Amino acid sequence: MTMKNKLTIACVALAARSRLAVAFTATAVTGTSLQPATIPEIHWTVPGFKVGWKDESGNWFDEDGPRDGPPMNYWRQSADQREYNRDMDVVNLLLEGSSATDAVQLALEKLEGRNSARYPSLSRKVLGQWAPIMVSNECTALVAKNPGCGSCDCGSFDVDVPFVMQIERTDGRRWGASNAYGIFDLKLEEGEGICVSAMDISKNMKADKANQCIELGSIEGVPLRIGSISYVSDYIMIQRGPGKTIDLWLRQDKSYLGATDEEKKKYHLI
Predict the structure, then answer these.
(1) Helix axis angle, 74-95 relative to 102-113, nearest 10°?
(2) CB atoms closer than 10 angstroms to residue 137
(3) How is the chain classified by DSSP, letter by letter?
(4) Do the beta carbons of residue 181 and residue 59 sit within 8 Å?
(5) How far is CA 216 from CA 93, 205, 223, 240, in A?
(6) Strand 165-169 to strand 193-198: parallel, antiparallel, or no bridges (unpaired)?
(7) Per-residue confidence of the chain (270 residues) as pLDDT tens digits?
(8) Using an 8 Å Cβ cutoff, are 93 and 79 in contact?
């Protein structure tokens, strides 16, 4: 199946699944003040290249139309797309209303099996803003159709969550060395100060490679904790709570894409 077709099918599937998710998640967040969440965009490892795809007849295309063969860096693009789809498939399962079913458990365990970080709690990828999609095996996201203007197909689906958690360095951002793929946040060091906050909860703590689960409180009945991270990527983070229950978080910031031009100027990276 081509990349273009996969993207189209994924959008159609999410639309169908989201209608089911409304009925399931409405009861999970009844009476809770919600805020909109966003679906993260794909992180292309090598930025600046047009995304290409091949149709069923073997013809190649990009955003400008037909082209003679695959674009430069197509195979890296394909790998990036697979990584994105793998994470988003799990999110879709949850928005579908599957919750902690065998299908979700299996998909999560497959992701956790791919975790290559020796100390995931020190990964730079934990930094940023995170929306809770599932906490303690319960779906916490509400999905509803946004009709758009009502006269064309510009409508979409909105995902709402009870809060957004932010994890940041207490002493400000630190950056790794520049490379061909960009400039990214530096990996956390053992004992480095971090702050975890969400609404009226704010906790300063030390980055800890032991990756222990720390309970921070609750927000409108939804537990907030950090630690026991079993998987973290550009797009999602999985934590295991008490009794191996699952917390799944969806990224809400763009730090995973690397420093922007404005950030490079602000932090004197250029």
Answers:
(1) 150
(2) 17
(3) --HHHHHHHHHHHHHHHHHHHHHHHHTTSTT---EEE-PPPP--SSTTPPP-EE-TTS-EEETTEEESSPPTTHHHHHHHHHHHHHHHHHHHHHHTT-TT-HHHHHHHHHHHHT---SSGGG-GGG-EEEEEEEETTEE--EEEEE-TTSSSS--EEEEEES--EEEEETT---B---BTTB--BPPPPTT-EEEEEETTEEEEEE--TT---EEEEEETTEEEEE--EEEE-SSEEEEE-GGG-EEEEEE-SSGGG---HHHHHHTT--
(4) no
(5) 27, 11, 8, 15
(6) antiparallel
(7) 444 333 333 333 333 333 333 333 333 454 567 899 999 999 999 988 888 888 999 999 998 999 999 988 888 999 999 999 999 999 988 887 666 578 888 899 999 999 888 999 999 999 999 999 999 998 899 887 666 655 555 555 678 999 999 999 999 999 999 998 999 999 999 999 999 999 999 999 999 999 999 999 999 889 999 999 999 999 999 999 889 899 999 999 999 999 999 999 999 998
(8) no
Residue positions counted in the chain: 270
